């Protein structure tokens, strides 16, 4: 028997809470995430902590699709979570995002 569950979408913030090419921190049930908004008005979500030194990425700099960690300048692609530059080597987990009624929602498990 296969058990399937319905995806749970959690409201993370209002669209207007994030400037273009910026990031915002979102905490939910003892977990921390980062919501990204690109210049193209696209939204993405990843785990909130850098995989290298556990510094919050919401304090980092978003350039295009690349988020730079504020501590050691490690870089990740916010679309895929892929580690893009030393000293980071472990990818970030990403989460589905959708926008409804002016709210950014992420799907978490």
TrEMBL record:
Q: Keywords in alphabetical order, please.
A: 2Fe-2S, Iron, Iron-sulfur, Metal-binding
Q: What residue stretches are annotated with the Rieske domain?
A: 10-106
The positions making up the signal sequence are: none
Give one GO term, molecular function aspect.
2 iron, 2 sulfur cluster binding
List the CDD domains hit by this protein, alphabetically.
Answer: Rieske_RO_ferredoxin
For this protein, the record's Gene3D superfamilies field holds: Rieske [2Fe-2S] iron-sulphur domain
Q: Which PROSITE patterns match?
A: RIESKE
One Pfam family from the UniProt entry? Rieske
Q: Which cofactor does it need?
A: [2Fe-2S] cluster
The family note in this entry says: Belongs to the bacterial ring-hydroxylating dioxygenase ferredoxin component family.
Protein name (Swiss-Prot/TrEMBL): Rieske (2Fe-2S) domain protein, MocE subfamily
């Amino acid at each position: 028997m296969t058990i399937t569950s319905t995806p749970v979408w959690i409201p993370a913030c209002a669209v207007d809470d994030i400037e273009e090419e910026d990031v915002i921190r979102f905490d939910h049930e003892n977990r921390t995430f980062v919501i990204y908004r690109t210049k193209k008005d696209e939204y993405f979500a990843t785990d909130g902590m850098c995989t290298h030194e556990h510094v919050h990425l919401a304090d980092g700099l978003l350039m295009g699709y690349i988020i730079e960690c504020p501590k050691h300048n490690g870089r990740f692609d916010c679309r895929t979570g892929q580690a893009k530059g030393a000293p980071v080597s472990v990818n970030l987990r990403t989460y589905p995002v959708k926008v409804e009624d002016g709210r950014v929602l992420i799907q978490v498990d």
